[in-house]
Amino acid sequence: MTERDDARSRLIEAAMELFAEKGYEGTSVRDLATAAGVNVAAVSYHFGSKDALYTETLRACLAPCAEMRTRMQAHLNLAKQKKGRKAAEDALRGCIRDFLELLVSPAAKHSHLVMREQSEAKPRFEPVIREFFEPVGTILHEVILMLAPGLPQPTVFMTISGIIGQCLHIFKARATYRVLAGVDSHSPEYIEMVSKHMAHFTALGLLGLEREKGTS
């Protein structure tokens, strides 16, 4: 790694920590430079602006999403080849497992920054949503429609949101799972078990909606 690349990487690492701890507005260019051990002018030199460093920092945080998205797409493609509800449920289980495995992996060590930006909901985060989250949502959308063709868009979105919410709870509430359920919610065994449960539960719920629609 060249000296230039090293300075750039250190700025991104510093930005991950400081943006997560103090927020975008609460972090100055001087704060970033000091934490990275570089000159204040280095931010402009390497990134052009604090805004651009912010975007590159989030891209670095979310880089593992690209590999996850590839695996999810493979699950969807296989389900399309096999066809049928079981194939779609298997694809959903695989997508849930991939997401949980990403959340608990060391690669997600800076997920608290992404969580903060999600909750603050500032316009600056919207391009990141389009680049990283929308493609994953599109895959899940197709899987859900394989289980419930014709499901209204708002219901599809709420179904996906429910799945994501459960996954985030499993990730964030590790202590609660240990105390109340006696399990490690980050363990491969639990992730496998809960992925199967969530996929099957969702598939049954969607089947119920389909039947309800048919009798209305």
Task: Describe what this molecule looks like in 3D.
- The chain is built from 11 helices and no strands.
- The protein has 216 residues and is mainly α.
- The longest helix is centred in the last third of the chain and has 28 residues, at 188-215.
- The protein is elongated, with a radius of gyration of 20 Å.
By DSSP (H or I, 4+ residues per run), the number of helices equals 11
Q: What sequence of helices (H) and strands (E) makes up the elements? A: HHHHHHHHHHH
Gyration radius, in Å: 20 Å
User: Ends: how far apart?
Assistant: 65 Å
Strand content: under 5%
Low-confidence stretches: none
What structural category do the secondary elements indicate?
mainly alpha
Principal-axis shape equals: elongated
Largest sheet: none
Mean pLDDT: 91
Helix content: over 70%
Number of strands: 0
The gist of it:
The protein is mainly alpha-helical.
Main attributes?
about 220 residues, mainly alpha, 11 helices, about 80% helix, elongated
List the helices and strands and how they pair.
Blueprint lengths: L2 H20 L6 H8 L5 H6 L2 H13 L1 H19 L2 H20 L6 H10 L5 H22 L5 H20 L1 H8 L6 H28 L1
Helix pairs in contact: 1-2, 1-4, 1-7, 5-6, 5-8, 6-8, 6-9, 6-11, 8-9
